[in-house]
């Protein structure tokens, strides 16, 4: 119908659709220059021990501040970056930057901790992915055990291939976490044989704890994870009662606004305890 109106049918589409396409094209174009222009940066959200409330690690989350567009959320630009393949370069930058920062904190005297980054399935499936990880760690002089890769259940579309890649990642000593667990379609059979270290329970299950009938779901996921010898992390904790329910079901690690939002490195550092408090001799 639109096209029947002339050679440039495009402008006859609803203005909503037009605006959406335009926004997408703008993001795609501006994203190309984002790394060079140093518009990308990482924020860190603590992972805490639910009993002691101590910070035991962090998730690095990508942020983009554009001079004209302002802050663009990862929920908006990551899908564009995935569609255009730009996620490969951006994802590598994230890995390198998180590794550099982690090493810098260790050198400042903070206890070594594991920092996780999110990895797109497109990065994961590339032939050179392991080399990229290895190079990032070597250049940062970071211990592989200090890096964890968060992948989603979408990598399970190709179970056999993914399992081989995961085995090689873990052989390097790098940790693997299954993010947003429970929202995808991985079968229990697949999960049982998956070489991973951590299960991250999706926020939707944590939100659902307001309903007592939903507690069984979290209980089941935690039991499953513990039986498979995995670390269990609950994401998106906002309320104290959620901590109570989670700890009663033996979930020991959590992440969420209740403890801290994702923050800039300088602010994150304030949450860390130095290994040795230097004793002043007078
Ligand atoms: P995710 O990996 O599941 O990250 C958790 C998201 O939940 C983050 O949103 C975080 O800020 C948010 N969050 C944490 N605690 C709470 C809470 O208590 N309440 C609420 N309402 N939200 C909470 P963010 O930073 O906007 O990231 C969204 C998604 O974008 C991430 O979901 C991840 O899938 C993707 N993403 C972020 N950084 C990267 C990256 O470097 N690479 C890739 N490939 N994806 C990334
Ligand atoms: Mg994540
Ligand atoms: Mg998540
Ligand atoms: Mg999520």
Structural class by secondary-structure content: alpha/beta
Number of strands: 9
Portion in helices: 40-55%
Mean pLDDT over the residues:
92
Low-confidence stretches: 1-6
**N-C termini distance:** 85 Å
**Radius of gyration in whole Å, from Cα?**
21 Å
Describe the protein's architecture and organization.
The structure is a single chain. 42% of the residues lie in helices and 20% in strands. The protein is of the alpha/beta class and 282 residues long. The relative contact order is 0.12. The site of one magnesium ion (MG) has 4 residues, from β6. This is GGDEF-domain containing protein. It comes from Planococcus lenghuensis.
Write the layout of secondary structure elements.
Layout: H1 15-34, E1 40-49, E2 55-66, E3 70-72, H2 74-84, H3 87-107, E4 114-118, H4 121-124, H5 129-140, E5 147-152, H6 159-171, E6 175-181, H7 188-192, E7 198-201, H8 203-207, H9 215-227, E8 231-235, H10 240-248, E9 253-255, H11 265-269
Parallel strand pairs: 2-4, 4-5, 5-6, 6-7, 7-8, 8-9
Antiparallel strand pairs: 1-2, 1-9, 2-3
This protein binds ligand C2E and magnesium ion (3 copies).
